[in-house]
Amino acid sequence: MGDLCRRLKDVSEAGIYRLNCPAEDLRASATEGGFIVFEADIANASGKGEVLAELARAIAAPDWFGHNWDALADALGDLSWCPASGYVLLLHGDPSGEAVLGDILDATISFWKLNGKAFWVFIA
């Protein structure tokens, strides 16, 4: 098991980080550790609707997904359709333009930590 894979398994360190390695290395290490990698490109999204649509696509959101912030929070806190030992969300583009998204991601990370799983967010 590689060093990055070991670090990903450290639930206490899970959080939001700038990606500082090649995306291929992150994907490989996450897969090695039994994680699912969700990859979303929000760089050119214009507004909440496009951000939500891209995130729903990335996580293969179920039919009940309502395309609003509450639905995103519910989906990220469920992920029963994607069982894994942990999760990595690789975002292409900076989510700082959507303050609510940052709050949802922080809450998601905390929720999964309480449940003994790592949920990482990397911004590429």
Automatic annotation (TrEMBL):
What Pfam families does its record include?
A: Barstar (PF01337)
Q: Which residues form a coiled coil?
A: none
* InterPro entries, A to Z: Barstar, Barstar-like_sf
**What region holds the Barstar (barnase inhibitor) domain?**
37-123
Looking at the UniProt entry, the stretches that span the membrane are none
Q: What is this protein called?
A: Barstar (Barnase inhibitor)
Organism annotation:
mine drainage metagenome
